[in-house]
């Protein structure tokens, strides 16, 4: 009896963990099976959504977990993309084994520099400093020959991963590209889920809730925020590497404040504080953008897709303050409220018949 009572909490925790991971695993399996049913256009659209989902997850670590609102996150996305192209060989495919870490480390190195300075500020000042650093990086690539100016530069050969004479991954092949991107999304989600459950993640959540109290308990909050800033930048660098490998080209617009604003809208749309919300928000944003920019559906209005998308975003934020991820909880609360208001049949008294 005692053994049974002691093991019950452990069983409940195990059951909770299985339920927590069940949906992400199911989504990963569905995504892996999609190439069998989708056209090349729809596969490309799924790839775009998944890459932006990784990008959104990286910003979620800053905004949703740590409470740091950045308007310069696209700088790390774009810098990694430029590093990928500039470091690639013009005569043969470069190895993913060193090109991907180089792109991520380059984004992380710039984040270490930016974060070391910007994290000494707070609130709106932090937002403006991150925006300033991102715009500085944007103009370096836009106004100089290092990045091909406003036209950008092309990737001559997409990266590959070879072991001896055997090619493990060749990103020129659509299926190889597809499964690498899906694998990176799964790895990014798992990493951030583990961070959130770790002591480091709990410290970041404490900083978001009350940084003053965290300092009073002995935490060096500056170092924690800087570590989160660099990790988020490296994940954004991963997304940048995948984007340039997919498109075969890079231009300065990847570093613009519009890109930073778009990814911020994605996590707001999905629901702040939720990894699943970041992925849902990225998918919803990209699909809405594709929908509103379709001339087949909207004709000439499709050229003004920014206006229609903006109005939709305002409507969603007003109706769903907790984002798309909060819809289920909102629906459950609504049903619970209706059940409380509806009297139970047993509470009615029967009128006696004459």
Automatic annotation (TrEMBL):
It is a multi-pass membrane protein. CDD domains: TM_PBP1_LivM_like. Pfam families: BPD_transp_2. InterPro entries: ABC_transp_permease (IPR001851), LivM-like (IPR043428). The keyword Transmembrane applies. The chain crosses the membrane at residues 21-39, 45-63, 95-117, 124-141, 175-195, 222-243, 263-288, 309-331. Keywords: Cell membrane, Membrane, Transmembrane, Transmembrane helix. Its main location: membrane. It is found in: Cell membrane. It comes from the Bacteria. This is Branched-chain amino acid ABC transporter permease. The lineage of its organism: Bacteria, Pseudomonadati, Pseudomonadota, Betaproteobacteria, Burkholderiales.
């Amino acid at each position: 009896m005692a053994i049974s009572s002691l093991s019950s909490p452990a069983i409940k925790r195990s059951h909770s963990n299985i339920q927590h991971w069940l949906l992400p695993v199911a989504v990963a399996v569905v995504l892996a099976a999609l190439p069998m049913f989708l056209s090349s256009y729809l596969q490309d659209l799924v790839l775009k959504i998944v890459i932006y989902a990784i990008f959104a997850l990286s910003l979620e670590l800053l905004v949703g977990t740590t409470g740091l609102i950045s308007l310069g996150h696209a700088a790390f996305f774009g810098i990694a993309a430029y590093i990928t192209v500039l470091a690639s060989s013009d005569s043969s495919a470069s190895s993913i084994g060193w090109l991907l870490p180089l792109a991520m480390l380059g984004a992380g190195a710039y984040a270490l520099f930016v974060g070391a300075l910007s994290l000494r500020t707070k609130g709106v000042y932090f937002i403006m400093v991150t925006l300033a650093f991102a715009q500085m990086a944007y103009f370096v690539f836009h106004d100089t020959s290092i990045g091909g100016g406003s036209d950008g530069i092309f990737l001559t050969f997409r990266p590959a991963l070879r072991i001896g004479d055997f090619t493990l991954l060749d990103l020129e092949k659509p299926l190889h590209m597809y499964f690498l991107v899906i694998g990176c999304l799964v790895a990014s989600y798992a990493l951030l889920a583990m961070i959130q459950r770790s002591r480091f993640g709990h410290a970041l959540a404490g900083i978001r809730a009350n940084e003053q109290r965290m300092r009073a308990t002995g935490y060096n909050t500056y170092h924690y925020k800087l570590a989160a800033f660099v990790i988020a930048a490296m994940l954004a660098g991963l997304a940048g590497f995948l984007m340039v490998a997919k498109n075969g080209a890079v231009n300065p617009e990847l570093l613009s404040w519009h890109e930073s604003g778009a990814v911020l809208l994605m996590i707001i749309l999905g629901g702040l504080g939720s990894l699943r919300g970041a992925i849902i928000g990225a998918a919803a944003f990209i699909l809405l953008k594709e929908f509103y920019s379709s001339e087949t559906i909207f004709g000439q209005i499709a050229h003004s897709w920014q206006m229609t998308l903006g109005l939709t975003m305002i409507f969603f934020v007003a109706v769903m303050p907790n984002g798309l991820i909060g819809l289920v909880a909102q629906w459950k609360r609504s049903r619970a409220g209706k059940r409380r208001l509806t009297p139970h049949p047993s509470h009615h008294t029967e009128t006696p018949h004459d």
